[in-house]
Amino acid sequence: MDEKQRLSIEAARLYYLSDYSQQDIAARLGVSRPTVSRMLQHAKDRGFVRISIIDPLEDLDAVAEEIKQIYGLDQVLVCYSPENEYRVIQKHISKKAADYLHETVQDSDIIGVTWGTTMHAVAQQLESKPVRGVEIVQLKGGVSHSHVNTYAAETVNLFADAFHTIARYLPLPVIFDSIALKQMVEEDRHIRRIIELGKQANIAVFTVGTVKEDALLFRLGYFSAEEQTHLQQTGAGDICSRFFDKNGQICSEEINNRTVGIDLADLKKKEKSVLVAGGQRKIDAIRAALVGRYANILVTDQFTAQALLT
Questions:
Q1: Distances (CA, A) of 298 to 11, 15, 158, 174
Q2: Can you give the residue ranges of the HTH crp-type domain (predicted)?
Q3: Which of 135, 139, 167, 171 could bond 262 through an S-S bridge, CB–CB 3.0 to 4.6 Å?
Q4: Of 219, 202, 201, nearest to 210 (Cα)?
């Protein structure tokens, strides 16, 4: 190897691997800065240096297509998150979902929404769209007896504001203490009308909950210790406060029969059943929801998407 090649490789190592400036390299090698610039160009021209740029966005469509095929979905939207951290992921997937809804919602659509921090994040990022005759309806009871904020009213109001309409509330607890009490309340004609509107919704937007100790529904105090233990042992997650196992099957008919709001079977019939979810802690629940065919559109991030493929 001649001296020019040796110096070019040395300059390239210092510049590309050790982050030396061209001025620093010139001083170290005892040459001028323009000479260093020529050395670096010589190293590239001779193939001593190969530069590759990894674009994290370019593979997203391929991953989305793979998930779409595996789980039989109509559409998969995979967004880029700079970190595999739940709050960061939530911020990016909620923006992706809000943008999707802004593009998709048309006059006279009926949009069913749920609550929780992800849904609130989606609602906060919705842009105003001048549509006519859109209706917004809560898909499950939004009244909580706990100090933990579910953002139920705020979420449905922000959806209504974005699409220039009024919100239809389901002003009830999501889970009653007894089946008889729940059935009696559902006999009320006003309540029945809201539940029926939820069934008629052509777009449903929801997230998925986990059965981990810190799950929102557990913190709201709806379950006895025995019920919570049973759900944690048999369940994988919940949608609209209806718990299912890893195969997407309801894991407690008794609890399900005390739950107010849309049935999971009705979600399968929606024109657009949009699941917005991501993060390491939710992967089991998301996979189970997709196996159960409760969503036909998934909005997630690249970390979660890759996990769903394994």
A1: 48, 43, 22, 24
A2: 1-57
A3: 139
A4: 219
Tokens coding 276: 């917005």
Which residues on adjacent β-strands are paired with residue 272?
203
Closest CA to 114 of 305, 269, 259: 259
SS3 assignment for 252-305: CHHHHCCECECCHHHHCCCCEEEEECCCHHHHHHHHHHHHCCCCCEEEEEHHHH
How far apart (Å, rounded) are the C-alpha atoms in residues 24 and 37?
Answer: 12
Distance between CA atoms of residues 261 and 303, nearest Å: 31
Contact predicate 75/271, CB 8 Å: no
Nearest alpha-carbon partner for 132 in 166, 108, 148, 161: 108
User: In this structure, are residues 167 and 136 in contact, taking their beta carbons and an 8 Å threshold?
Assistant: yes
- CA 69, CA 58: separation in Å to the nearest integer? 19
Do 115 and 101 meet the contact criterion of CB atoms below 8 Å apart? no
Task: Give SS3 for 136.
Answer: strand
**298 touches 108 (CB < 8 A):** no
Pairing mode of beta strands 272-276, 297-301? parallel
Q: Which amino acid is at 258?
A: R
**Taking a C-beta distance cutoff of 8 angstroms, is the pair 14, 20 a contact?**
yes
> What does pTM read for this prediction?
0.81
Can you give the C-alpha Rg of the chain in angstroms? Answer: 26
Distance of CA 219 to the CA centre of its chain: 21
Q: What φ, ψ does residue 222 adopt, rounded to 5°?
A: -80, -20
> pLDDT tens digits for 40-59?
999 998 888 888 766 666 68
Three-point CA angle 158, 160, 162, nearest 5°: 70
CA geometry: angle 123, 200, 261, nearest 5 deg: 65
The answer to whether 95 and 301 have CB atoms below 8 angstroms apart is no
Instruction: Give the containing element (helix H, strand E) for 155.
Output: helix 152-162
